[in-house]
UniProtKB/TrEMBL annotation:
This is Uncharacterized protein. It comes from Vreelandella aquamarina.
Amino acid sequence: MNEPMDIAALVAALQEQTAAINRLADSNQQVIDYLFSQEAEDLDSAAAPSPYLDPDETD
């Protein structure tokens, strides 16, 4: 077993995983920002807010 290569591969894999997690966190933040903006628009309108993300869904 070539330990320096194994360690280098592990470090590279961890860096890729960290980058993927950061992309996921950024994506989640974008979804939250979008939902907040939609909620703010709904508050500005006179219509009652919907508890559902899908506007076609009903109680």
